[in-house]
Amino acid sequence: MRVLGIETSCDETGIALYDSERGLLADALFSQIDLHRVYGGVVPELASRDHVKRMVPLMREVFAKAGLQPGEVDAVAYTAGPGLVGALLVGGAFARALAFAWGVPALGVHHMEGHLLAPCLEEHPPEFPFVALLVSGGHTQLVRVDGIGQYQLLGESLDDAAGEAFDKTAKLMGLPYPGGPEIARLAEQGRPGAFVFPRPMTDRPGLTFSFSGLKTAVLTAWQACSREGEPDQQTLADIALGFETAVVETLTIKCRRALKQTGLKRLVIAGGVSANHRLRQQLESMTAELKGNVFYARPAYCTDNGAMIAYAGCQRLLAGQQDEGGIETRARWPM
Ligand code: KG4
Ligand code: ZN
């Protein structure tokens, strides 16, 4: 089965072709980061308009890369939510129009299911069952995964998502959007222990997260430093490292708990924050200690992309899911 996947939930237009026999055939991505950077975050209206502009050229690009004619597919999968409604509608309307013209089914895919399954596109995919840590700009969740569509939520954030905490913290430090990669880059020059921030909710049992207090702790430290004048580059790097370490340790503690609680040995990390090197390293050592393994996607498939949607759509269709007709889009949608 060959599926065209379309991702437009936020500020990345991603289109890809996945073949159940041959794997990923081609993918193309346009990131709107430069468009939104001047505003310090994503402007929904601008995002929708830009998705409209990119759709046709990117679709043509993936078919050309794969050596196929537009339309040589068995289905079209698109991100139906969660995300920005205007942006989702662009992808949904485009997918449905293509499917109608080509006489194939269209299927709405859950964005977080796309992220969750992205590591399955790699050379050594995880086998079911596993525990997944989903860490993106909008979600922080621990999920027990027993198969396609068999997801049990173990814990999630009460407030900010991990990626959101990176972005908001970066913003208050005067760093550009998106904050995750900026903080990670700065933290490389940071001195360990110069700033120590709380590890929220690790002192009580359970798998719930909360990241908004951590952002406030950074703000307090930042304001204290700023009173003596503009903080220098070293202070910036020290704060970045203190913040990143606090997030990574918190996530690691909860992942360890989730593995112990479920008795599972395989951990999958997915979503934009799973591109973070420090997080990957810490989870490598933690799972090695437990004689388990951690799986993640290449950096380009940690953040939003079309490949994960093509893959997830293909798995759903192979599992017998039907085209429900109509353009399904949902700003909020539990997985
Ligand atoms: O999955 P994603 O591309 O979009 C959503 O579904 O939200 O995740 C984007 C998030 C942003 O908050 C961004 O700052 C964060 O992922 N991010 C990172 C890194 N790369 C992206 N956070 C920490 N370290 C990184 N290297
Ligand atoms: Zn995402």
Automatic annotation (TrEMBL):
Question: What GO molecular function annotation could you give as one example from this UniProt entry?
Answer: tRNA N(6)-L-threonylcarbamoyladenine synthase activity
* One Pfam family linked to the record: TsaD
PROSITE patterns, A to Z: GLYCOPROTEASE
**Residues given in the record as substrate binding sites:** L134, V135, S136, G137, G138, D167, G180, N276
- Gcp-like domain: which residues? 24-311
Q: Record keywords: Transcription regulation included? A: no
Protein's GO biological process: tRNA threonylcarbamoyladenosine modification
Heme as a keyword of this entry, yes or no, is no
> Catalytic activity annotated for this protein?
L-threonylcarbamoyladenylate + adenosine(37) in tRNA = N(6)-L-threonylcarbamoyladenosine(37) in tRNA + AMP + H(+)
Task: Look up the record and name the cofactor or cofactors this protein needs.
Answer: Fe(2+)
Pull one GO CC term from this UniProt entry.
cytoplasm
This protein's source sits in the domain of life called: Bacteria
NCBIfam families associated with the record: gcp_kae1, T6A_TsaD_YgjD
Protein name as annotated = tRNA N6-adenosine threonylcarbamoyltransferase
Q: Which organism is it from?
A: Halopseudomonas aestusnigri
